[in-house]
DNA sequence: TATGCCGGGAG
DNA sequence: CTCCCGGCATA
């Protein structure tokens, strides 16, 4: 009566479906599990949702006031083109780097078109900004290896890449056979950084700060980006969100203390931190084993439900909608 | 209390 | 398959 479990609210909506007497809906299944209209399949739909969701999330994080008024505005397909052109029209002035190149690299080839090729097909635009370092005006660019312990410096892009590949990554692109992961290894990029050296300024800036990861997939090996929302691979949407969040220039006025689900981009040089090894080994972290070890230990990140709220359920990831393990914010 | 999600049921 | 919910373990 007074304390509705917050879910009933939606439950009513589902049954009563008041706000919209859909014409072609004569069946009034009052007490049966009824299916959602669900427009159609979720192909681009889902992608758009993700896009919209992210956008919405951004808005939500920026404007603490007026909890409503967002979806109504940018949910319909009308915003599809808009929702995806945002990353180009971001109000950010200093858009130069410090983020996934694929975000700023593509200008018109927007992935959300037909085939969607983002960074798996990443062009070799690595050594570009350094090309005209030859000018020799005041600054010079050198490439420094960022392998833990190694600080080798080279003066040209190919050199450092060769160094990284030969000295650290191995002669070939044959890393540990983890699972998936395809050709397309330009991993070397992740292990060196270009440093601008003026006349006598040793430590100028570090660019690829959080790019230093252990030998892992450098991109999505997923060719079929249709249901990357379901099977819950170790890394997928979260990564996307992460990157998105990391690249988002939004200053987030301190008014809202909302924190992104992943606290993206803060790890300086996380060398080895992949926690997706098998937790099944000596000294299991589970000391109490409640009864069913199969039950997911529910991470601490906010899932779609909490992030978007019971209303706006349409923005949840598919799994969340179905009360299954969330995939978008797979923590 | 609310949230996350497993297991299971309806189409 | 997709979609949904009861109910439980959690926080
Ligand atoms: Zn989710």
UniProtKB/TrEMBL annotation:
Residues 207-216, 225-239 have a biased composition (Basic and acidic residues). Its main location: nucleus. Keywords: DNA-binding, Metal-binding, Nucleus, Transcription, Transcription regulation, Zinc, Zinc-finger. It is found in: Nucleus. Residues 21-46, 82-103, 201-239 are annotated as: Disordered. This is Zinc finger protein 704.
């Amino acid at each position: 009566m007074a304390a509705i479990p917050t879910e009933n609210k939606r439950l009513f909506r589902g049954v009563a479906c008041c706000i919209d007497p859909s014409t072609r809906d004569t069946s009034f299944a009052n007490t049966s599990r009824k299916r959602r209209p669900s427009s159609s399949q979720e192909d681009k739909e889902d992608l758009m949702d993700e896009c919209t969701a992210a956008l919405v999330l951004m808005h939500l994080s920026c404007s603490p006031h007026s909890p409503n008024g967002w979806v109504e505005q940018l949910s319909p397909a009308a915003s599809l083109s808009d929702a995806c052109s945002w990353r180009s029209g971001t109000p950010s002035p200093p858009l130069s780097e410090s983020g996934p190149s694929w975000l700023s690299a593509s200008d018109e080839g927007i992935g959300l078109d037909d085939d969607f090729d983002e960074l798996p097909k990443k062009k070799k635009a690595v050594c570009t900004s350094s090309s005209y370092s030859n000018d020799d005006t005041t600054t010079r660019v050198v490439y420094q290896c960022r392998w833990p312990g190694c600080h080798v410096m080279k003066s040209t892009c190919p050199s450092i890449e060769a160094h990284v590949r030969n000295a650290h990554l191995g002669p070939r692109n044959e890393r540990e056979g983890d699972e998936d992961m395809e050709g397309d290894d330009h991993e070397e990029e992740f292990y060196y950084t270009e440093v601008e050296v003026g006349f006598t300024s040793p430590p100028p800036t570090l660019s690829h700060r959080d790019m230093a990861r252990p030998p892992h997939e450098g991109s999505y090996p997923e060719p079929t980006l249709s249901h990357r929302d379901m099977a819950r691979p170790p890394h997928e949407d979260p990564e996307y969100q992460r990157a998105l969040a990391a690249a988002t220039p939004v200053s987030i006025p301190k008014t809202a203390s909302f924190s992104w689900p992943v606290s993206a981009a803060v790890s300086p040089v996380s060398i080895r931190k992949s926690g997706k090894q098998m937790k099944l080994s000596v000294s299991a972290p589970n000391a109490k084993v409640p009864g069913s070890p199969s039950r997911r230990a529910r991470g601490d990140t906010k899932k779609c439900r909490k992030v978007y709220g019971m209303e706006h359920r349409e923005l949840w990831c598919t799994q969340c909608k179905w009360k299954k393990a969330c995939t978008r914010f797979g923590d």
